[in-house]
């Protein structure tokens, strides 16, 4: 059953992470959603996490090589934390070398740079490279899978469980699963938290050991605005694709799971992305650091504080309905000094045609130090008699 929902990301350290999860039906769109062949699919707005359209998006399915998005995320974290370096050699174990499915053809017991393994995994979808990286970070692939699941919980992926780093199994493996919605959350986290690694997903080919292999994401050739993200396929999972497209000022993320063919997953994804850009307008509500209002401050060196949003707030609205968008600002009262820059002090609630359209944190745009003794004493009396 196709639904249009406003569903907001949880547990992500960005603007979208602080939005209230809602289940409010989206207002009708003027352009019908295309008919797709995949078993499950979803389209989200990257900046807000808002679901623009979905079908069976919470159904647990095998993700095949979409699993490698989480492996890539953990490799990116290890690089950022200096636990790995791109020029660090990794010894390829026999276990990694013997991994079946798509391969980068790394040599058994040979030393391969992290940079080559990362490109082999991201561009070539090499299962052998995935296992080698997992062993380099976790010591063993089972230990790395545990790290994957811990990170999944941290990112708010509530219907995901990983058993290995590649997503490859010799047959069906129902205990290795995710959902279209969780894969969209993961894709958005990868783009947001590790943009330098995300850029690798737009590379169309990579040559290692004299073997040139092409990125399996057909959309990289079909649409110049597509810059990732990951394909997957197995007999049990069908053909899967997580795609992301940037058509300024908006980025959309699509996920299709269980399409019947390579061509079908590409067609479904492109149709979904095109529909999202056509059916929704990008409405700028506030700019980054723009003063939305001033809130009263008690026991502060100043009587008020300027408040606004941390990032530019551009939201998707069904085409032609921007005039029906309204805002309501709620403050946390009483607001007591000191107030620190960036502290959440309220909530911006959006309504579209009488329906809830998302909630966003409002933060202090300046410091308000603690008032002196007599100022605090006076405000204590004021609050006492409120």
Quick tags:
Beta-lactamase, Peptidoglycan synthesis regulatory factor (PBP3), Domain 2, 5-stranded antiparallel β-sheet, 386 residues
Task: Choose one word for the global shape.
Answer: globular
Number of helices: 10
Head-to-tail CA distance between termini: 52 Å
Q: Determine the mean pLDDT.
A: 90
Uncertain segments are 1-25
Q: Tell me roughly what share of residues is in helical segments.
A: 25-40%
Q: Mind telling me the CATH class of the largest domain?
A: Alpha Beta
Kindly name the structural category. Answer: alpha+beta
Beta content comes to 25-35%
Report Rg: 24 Å
Q: In order across it, which strands form the biggest sheet?
A: 1-5-4-12-11-10
Q: Oligomer, anyone?
A: single chain
CATH architecture of the largest domain: 3-Layer(aba) Sandwich
Outline the biggest β-sheet. Answer: 6 strands, antiparallel
Give the count of structural domains.
2
CATH topology of the largest domain: Beta-lactamase
Would you mind describing this structure in some detail?
- This protein is of the alpha+beta class and 386 residues long.
- The chain has 2 domains: 2-282, DD-peptidase/beta-lactamase superfamily (Beta-lactamase, 3-Layer(aba) Sandwich), CATH 3.40.710.10; 287-384, Sandwich (Peptidoglycan synthesis regulatory factor (PBP3), Domain 2), CATH 2.60.410.
- The protein has 10 helices and 19 strands.
- The protein has a 6-stranded antiparallel β-sheet with strand order 1-5-4-12-11-10, with helices on both faces.
- A hairpin with a 2-residue loop joins strand 18 (344-352) and strand 19.
- Helix 4 (127-138) crosses helix 5 (141-154).
- Mean pLDDT is 90; it is low at 1-25.
């Amino acid at each position: 059953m196709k639904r249009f929902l406003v569903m907001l990301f949880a547990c992500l350290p960005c603007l979208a992470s602080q939005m209230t999860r809602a289940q409010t039906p989206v207002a009708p769109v003027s352009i019908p959603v295309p008919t797709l062949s995949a078993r499950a699919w979803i389209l989200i707005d990257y900046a807000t996490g808002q679901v623009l359209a979905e079908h069976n998006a919470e159904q647990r399915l095998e993700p095949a090589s979409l699993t490698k998005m989480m492996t890539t995320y953990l490799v990116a974290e290890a690089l950022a934390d200096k636990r790995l370096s791109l020029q660090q050699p990794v010894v390829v174990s026999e276990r990694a070398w013997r991994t079946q499915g798509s391969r980068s053809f790394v040599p058994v017991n040979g030393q391969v740079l992290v940079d080559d393994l990362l490109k082999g995994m991201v561009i070539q979808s090499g299962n052998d490279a995935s296992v080698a990286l997992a062993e380099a970070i976790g010591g063993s692939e089972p230990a790395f899978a545990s790290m994957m699941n811990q990170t999944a919980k941290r990112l708010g992926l509530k219907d995901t469980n990983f058993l290995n780093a590649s997503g490859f199994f010799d047959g069906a493996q129902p205990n290795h699963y995710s959902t279209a919605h969780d894969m969209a959350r993961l894709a958005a986290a990868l783009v947001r938290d590790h943009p330098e690694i995300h850029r690798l997903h737009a590379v169309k080919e990579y040559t290692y050991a004299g073997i040139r292999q092409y990125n399996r994401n057909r959309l990289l050739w079909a649409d110049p605005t597509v810059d990732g993200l990951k394909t997957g396929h197995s007999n049990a999972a069908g053909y899967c694709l997580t795609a992301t497209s940037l058509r300024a000022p908006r980025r959309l993320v699509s996920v299709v799971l269980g399409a019947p063919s390579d061509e079908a997953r590409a067609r479904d994804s492109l149709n979904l992305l095109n529909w999202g850009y056509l059916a929704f307008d990008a409405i700028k509500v506030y700019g980054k650091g723009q003063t939305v209002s001033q809130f009263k401050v008690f026991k502060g060196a100043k009587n008020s504080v300027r408040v606004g949003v941390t990032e530019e707030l551009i939201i998707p609205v069904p085409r032609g309905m921007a005039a029906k968008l309204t805002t309501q600002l709620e403050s946390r009262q009483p607001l007591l000094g000191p107030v620190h820059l960036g502290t959440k002090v309220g909530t911006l609630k959006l309504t579209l045609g009488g329906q809830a359209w998302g909630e966003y944190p409002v933060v202090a745009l300046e410091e308000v130090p603690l008032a002196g003794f007599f100022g605090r004493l006076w405000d204590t009396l004021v609050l006492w008699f409120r």
